[in-house]
Structures are given as structure tokens and as C-alpha cells.
Amino acid sequence: MIRVSQIKIPIDINDASWYQDQEKIYGRLRKKVAKTLRIGEEQIESISISKHSIDARKKPELFDIYTVDAVIKAGSANGKGSGKNGLEESLVKKCRDKNVSVIKEKSYDFFEKVSARKESEAKDSSTVPDLALNKRICIIGAGPAGLFCGYELAMAGFKPIIFERGADVEKRCEIVDRFWTSGKLDVKTNVQFGEGGAGTFSDGKLNTMVKDKEGRGAEALDIFVKHGAPERIKYESKPHIGTDILKDVVKNIRQSIIDAGGEVYFENQVSELILDDTNALKGLKVSESIVECDAAVLAIGHSARDTFKMLYESKVEMQPKPFAVGFRVEHPQSLINKSQYGVADSKALPAAPYKLTTTTKEGRGVYSFCMCPGGYVVNASSEEGMLAVNGMSYSKRDGKNANSAIIITVDPKDFGSDHVLAGVEFQRKLEKKAFELAGGKIPVERYGDFRKAVNADNTAVREQGISGVDNDMNDSGISGVESFDSEFNDPQMKGSYEFAAVHEILPEELNTAFVEGMEKFGRIIKGYNDERALVSGVESRTSSPVRINRDENGESVNIKGLFPCGEGAGYAGGIMSAAMDGIRTAELVAKKLLD
To answer: What's the mean pLDDT when you consider all of the chain?
Structure first.
């Protein structure tokens, strides 16, 4: 196969079908590939897109940048050498282009990672179940880590048993929608707990900073596509599914696990670890039953606070972990589009994302997190008397507002205690304030009011010169450009909201860092620090407040047979990294049980 990189195609921003008509897209690419390789289009057997991104460096003149893999027909006239390999190498050499190369496809192989199958053994699935040896593997949690771990184990012939404290995704959606309408919280099933984990009610982002040398990321994307996600997630530089599609994908993965012999039990919470005399795991207490197992994967998610307490009381070794807290910030999506693309509205272009990061004068990291183009701020609470928010987008990302968490790094010294679970109590303290501010509704404040309150009350802000008004700013708060002509919108939220003093939630030092970050971001995205921007809170569930220590074999360092996994255990940050860690943990569990 020949890979052609850096294929550049000018975007027609007025063509509504630009990304909708697949035949046109592949037609453009076929022409470009043929021209690059100096062959006729008829000599190309097939092409596939490996990568796509939008180049906006010369906005508003925009370009699609593609990497394309092409299969050339055997015996094509311009090829020399024997066989397809010789033909491909000849074509690559002849075109003398550094962006053209011969590649060899290599698919992910679970048993190759486990090293449980000899090279000479047959690779058809009929040989796999004999290796499973009827070992019982329990998985605690049906978020991305648990589901992908369960899927790999089930496909390998094991019959994993998944226990999820919340409801299945169909029932869960009804319960969450009812909460957003009525405000009545179900502490067992909510935005945090239930099939698919917290990611089910999110933007469904599938990008990750984790390097994919082992092919687990590609495997995860293949699984998503196989179960209903669009093919484009395999090549987009910033792939996302959207909450509407993700719900169906999650359900389909569950069905595949069941079809392969696995079991999935909802509304069944693991409340105790059953250990033997050597401190090794031998079973779990689930609801009121004891379930014996040979291994258990702990994929509990970042909000399982009662489970963290149970693990602490069981003396599972863990430690407090840094994370970040802050607020959701909303702007008109058209403002973000204008900044990123050079045009506020285009028939062709998707809603623009952004990523922002800075370090304050005091050394705090401030950055955007879980940015949702055309999305909603959602009430993501899971405990009575406390309120947390998150962001969510549908697959079309067609809402009027863009939102993102703007969060500030915190670490154990901020928690007020050296207790392992001090980070949990720190989160709860903030969430209790957020709940009380608006009587359980999402508290919202205009950024101008937030900034004014912080400037008036905070000596540190004045000393750092963060006045919120640059000399060259006009009345709109936008530096160096004409006033943005789009009206700022009302909050776009799932769950009731009320305007309140959001600036009272965080400690003074974190408020200072937030304002400093917002002002810096206003110099990157013009209008970002406009006084009409919306600030809501509190964003407190960005990642797990603990890390459950594990060794090089993936097991708890002091409870053998227990495999901490995913975001709740402190080893992932988002859907993709959690899924990849789930796949890796499946390999390690299989290796242990097959050795």
C-alpha cells in the first residue's frame, strides 16, 4: 500500500455538501493521488483516508489536509519489479516525493500482546475458547474502561461478568432527562453513574494524548465503528461521536459482550472485596450476594466516592492525585468560528473547537478542558446537596453556544489535609457551595460581573494588574478588532439554571488564576474575555482525585487479583485513554490467567 501525505485541497466554505458527499470527497482525493504518483486514475484499485485536518493558518482561505492510503492494481503499466510490493516501491521511487511512502498494514492482535499463542497456531476464533480455561473475571464498572476490557476478553473466549451500579443506557437516559427537567436526583443512576460512564453524556471526544505504539487506540476506534460510530472517527484529527450516537454504540458493545458469552448486570454495586489469608482477591460482595472470581478489574470511574472509601477501608494502596477545578464558560459558537476559521458562519465547516492553555504568575496551570462546540452545559451531579457541571454535544454540534471548562490545577497541598481522600472532600466542599448558591439549580454569572467582583475583593488581582480592561479594548471587550456583531446568547443548558454569585465558589487564589487565564485567552481568541460571556459552576470532576497504585503487571500493589483500570483508578483522562487502558488491562488479566 502507498501512503500519500499532505494532500491539500482548498475548501469551498459556501458548499453545504462539502463534507457530506463521500463520492465527491473520494473523487477529489483519487485525482490528487493519481497526479502525485504520475499514474492514471484507472490504475488505482482503491483508496482510504488515513488522516484529515483543516488548515486555517491563512484564514479565511482554508484547506483540507489529507493523508491517503492507495492500493495500486497489479500489473499497472508504470510499475517495474515483481508483484505488488515491487510495483509500489517503483512508483514511490519514481515520483521522488518525501510525502509518498510504502506502508505495511498491521492490525491489532490481542493474543500477540498476551503472548499466549504460538506463531504457528491457527488464528481463527475456534481455537481461542480452549485457552480461557473457564476462569471467572469480574469487571467493576461499565464505563469505557470496563466495556472495552470486557469486549476484548469476551472476544478472546473468556466470559467476563460486568457489574454496573447504575442503569442500562436506555433506562439511564430516561432518569437523567427527568432529573434535568424536575431537579430530582437519582444517586444511583445519573450523569456520572450508569452504562457508558460519564462519557455517555459528553461531547464524545475520541482524541487522546496517549501514544499508540501498541495499536490499542486504532483498535478502540475500530470497535467504535463496528458498533455504530461513523467511519470518519478513524481519520479525523479531532474525532468525536456526540452523545446521541454514543448511547447506541455503548448499547451495541454491551450486546456483543453478551453474544460472546459475557454477562452484564446493571443496578448492582460492588460494596466489598473478599480477600483470602494471603490478602489476595477471591471474590466480591455485589448487592447482597458473594461472587467468587479469579480476577477483578476495577474500572469504577472518577466519581465513585463511596467506592474509594470502601477501598481505603480495605487497605487497598492508593494516594491522592492532582487534578483541576474551575467553571464552564459559554460563548456564541459564531465568535469561536470567526476566531478559528476567519468566518463566523459557513455552510461547509463544522463548528470550530479550540484549545487554550497558560500558566499564571503564581505558577498555576489554567487550561480549557472538554471543549464542546455547539454544545450544552449539563447538571452532572451525583450526590444530594451538591452540584457539579459538565459539557455535552450532540453529533451535529449545532447549538448556538460553544462551551468549555476553564480549569485550574490543584494538588494535595490545596486540599487542607494529607488524608488519601482529601481531594474528594475538597471537591465536595466546592459542590456544596455551588448547590447552595442557586438552590440546586446551575448557578450562572456573566464574566464581567465575575471579574468585577474578583477585582474588587482580591488584593492579589490588583497587585498583578489584572484589571480586565486593556487600553486598546473597545466597549465589547475585544482587543484590536471591531466589535463582534453577534449577540451573546442566554445559557444553553440541560437542567435548570439561575444567575448567582458564581465567584463565591472557589477559593480566592483560584479565582485569581481563573481571571488571569481568561484575560490571557482574550488575547488569543478575540472576545473570549467579553463581559457578556457566561460562567457557570462548578467543574469539579475533571479527573480522579486518587490514584490506585498498580504494578507493572497491572495488579494492585498489595491486593493480588485486583486490576485498577481507567480514569477512576487514575490512569486515564477521557473516553479514548480509558478505553485503551481497558484494552491493556484485558491483556494483562488474560496473561495472568493463562500463564
So the answer is: 91
Whole-number pLDDT of residue 125: 46
Cβ 62 vs Cβ 342: under 8 Å:
yes
Comparing C-alpha atoms, which of 120, 259, 153, 253 is closest to residue 197? Answer: 253
Q: Is the peptide bond before 538 cis (omega within 30 degrees of 0)?
A: yes
Whole-angstrom distance, CA of residue 236 vs CA of residue 52: 5
Place 84 in a pLDDT band, splitting at 50, 70 and 90: low
> What are the C-alpha distances in Å from 238 to residues 15, 17, 212, 226?
22, 20, 15, 19
Provide the grid cell at 274: 473478599
Cβ atoms within 10 Å, residue 86 = 12
pTM metric for this prediction: 0.92
* DSSP-derived secondary structure letter, 350: P
CB 98 within 8 A of CB 92: no
Q: How does pLDDT run across 501-556, given as a tens digit for each residue? A: 999 999 999 999 999 999 999 999 999 999 999 999 999 999 999 999 999 999 99
Whole-angstrom distance, CA of residue 299 vs CA of residue 318: 15
Backbone dihedral angles phi then psi of residue 93, each to the nearest 5 degrees: -65, -40
* Cβ atoms of 300 and 145 closer than 8 Å: no
> Distance (Å, rounded) from C-alpha 536 to C-alpha 389?
8
pLDDT digits (tens, 9 = 90+) for 420-466: 999 999 999 999 999 999 999 999 999 999 999 999 766 544 454 44
Peptide bond into 332 cis (omega under 30): no
3-state secondary structure of 58: strand
Edge-to-edge strand list for the sheet holding 270-275: 270-275, 281-286, 289-292
Is residue 357 classed as helix, strand or coil in its secondary structure?
strand
376-379 vs 493-494, strand pairing mode: parallel
d(CA 338, CA 476) in angstroms, rounded, equals 15
pLDDT of residue 104: 87
- pLDDT for 562-584, tens place per residue? 999 999 999 999 999 999 999 99
DSSP annotation of 194 reads S
Query: Whole-angstrom Cα distance, residue 166 to residue 257?
Result: 18
Q: Is the pLDDT of residue 481 over 50?
A: no
Find, among 492, 455, 531, the residue nearest to 377 by Cα: 492
Please check the confidence at residue 378 and state whether its pLDDT lies above 50: yes
In this structure, the strands spanning 270-275 and 401-410 are unpaired
Q: By 3-state DSSP, what share of the chain in percent is helix, strand and coil, each rounded to 5?
A: 35, 25, 45
280: exposed, middle or buried (C-beta count within 10 Å: 0-12, 13-18, 19+)? middle
Sign of the CA dihedral 474, 476, 478, 483? Answer: negative
DSSP H or E segment with residue 64: strand 61-72
Q: Is the pLDDT of residue 57 over 80?
A: yes
Residues 6+ apart with CB under 8 A from 324: 365, 367, 369, 407, 408, 409, 410, 542, 543
Whether 236 contacts 353, CB under 8 Å: no
